[in-house]
Design brief:
It contains 15 helices and 10 strands. The chain has 404 residues and is an alpha/beta fold. The longest helix has 32 residues, at 173-204.
């Protein structure tokens, strides 16, 4: 393998263009039940599909704690090796983070590329990053991921460096590589600071508008909702992380203007260094006045997804903002929940109970919609407008007569 960290980053981390066949691996521990692991592997399969791979087999191991050498133990690894032998499988994806030595040990046994969930998410982010800011953030996160794994991942570590192109005799190549990566991280941070200063100036120039930000788990329909509310075309598709860069539009409801921003979707087990790198993009969340927390109510674990988003909002220092819970995909929820023979009266009664429960839990700050069908969007507009107008009256009482 090349001793150039930039080459290694490309060799190790990219899923090949085209449709690779992948094996997925999860681990049941005292902290992760079998039901949770199955759910996580469903999501991992969707992540793999988003990156261009097809999951052809799943393996689940049960251990009290991860094996320090191979994560899942030698026996399970041999079982995976038996399956992939003679088959067109080119990558194994683990649902939990692996160390550099674990990756190296697994690859020695299996003979094919091995990555973990963090690596996979970084690959998707790298493919979808369009702006200079997003590209820089992803590259920074990739090098931060790579740095602690250099020793285990590379095979040239025991050789001594020296002569032309190295610091001097006696320095091992791993030390040279660490220095290269640390220098690269430092340069990327400086570049990101410059981009962030420009972005901050642009945000300041937006004037005294109330700011509303769409947040939520990935693939819950935020971009579709953004298009509906702002009547603009924002990229939306049925894949994870369809949006990386924050999009902001000026929206006017009943002569009341405000700024509406769409942000990157959150996900469980999101790599910490990725959250750190993307904090500048998520400044729109921190600096917003109101959060529209979009939820895919048709998802079987939507309450867990709500908890994941709330936890990341807390990490970002945005947990204390006014929130409207927007339960999207009610059309899918009804298809999945109600049998066709169920009477309309019973159906309405069950829906009423659901809405009452969440109204009590949120103090009425929730709404149930189907963005794809444009169902109940008027109720959402009314709820948002009420919050925006109240904030204008509180913050800029001398200006409100111009709005409504």
């Amino acid at each position: 393998m090349s001793s150039n960290p930039e080459v290694v980053l490309i060799e190790k981390k990219k899923i090949r263009e085209g449709r690779e066949h992948a094996v997925l691996v999860g681990l049941i521990t005292p902290e992760q039940t079998e039901a949770q692991v199955q759910e996580y592997l469903d999501e991992l399969a969707f992540l793999a599909e988003t990156a261009g791979a097809v999951a052809v087999k799943r393996y689940i191991q049960k251990l009290s704690h991860p094996d320090s050498r191979t994560f899942i133990g030698k026996g399970k690894l041999e079982e995976i090796k038996t399956f992939i032998t003679g088959r067109d499988v080119s990558i194994v994806i683990f649902d939990d983070e692996l160390s550099g030595s674990q990756i190296s040990n697994i690859e020695k046994v299996l003979g094919i590329k091995t990555i973990d969930r963090s690596d996979l998410i970084l690959d998707i982010f790298a493919r979808r990053a369009k702006t200079a800011q997003a590209r820089t953030q992803v590259e920074l996160a990739q090098y931060q991921y790579l740095l602690p794994r250099l020793k285990g991942m590379w095979k040239h570590l025991e050789r001594q460096g020296g002569g032309i192109g190295t610091r001097g005799p006696g320095e091992t190549e791993i030390e040279t590589d660490r220095r290269i990566v640390n220098t690269k991280i430092s340069l990327l941070r400086k570049r990101l600071e410059e981009i962030e200063k420009q972005a901050y100036t642009q945000r300041k120039d937006r004037g005294e508008f109330i700011r509303v930000a769409l947040v939520g788990y990935t693939n819950v329909g935020k971009s579709t909702l953004m298009n509906l509310l702002s009547k603009s075309e924002v990229f939306a598709e049925n894949k994870l992380f369809a949006t990386l860069d924050t999009t902001t539009r000026k929206v006017v409801f009943n002569n009341t203007p405000f700024l509406l921003s769409d942000t990157v979707g959150f996900i469980r087990k999101l790599p910490h260094h990725l959250v750190e790198s993307f904090k500048s993009t998520l400044d729109e969340v921190r600096e917003s006045d109101i959060l529209l927390h979009v939820v895919d109510i048709s998802h079987p674990r939507h309450e867990e997804q709500i908890s994941v988003v709330n936890r990341i909002l807390h990490e970002l220092g945005a947990a204390d903002k006014p929130v409207i819970l927007v339960f999207n995909k009610m059309d899918l929820y009804e298809q999945q929940t109600f049998d066709p023979w169920l009477s309309e009266e019973v159906r309405e009664d069950l829906l009423g109970q659901l809405k009452t429960e969440w109204a009590n839990r949120t103090g009425g700050d929730c709404v149930f919609i189907a963005a794809a069908e444009k169902r109940n969007v008027a109720a959402l507009r009314e709820l948002v407008l009420g919050k925006v107008v109240a904030l204008y009256r509180e913050r800029f009482p001398y200006k409100t007569e111009h709005f409504y």
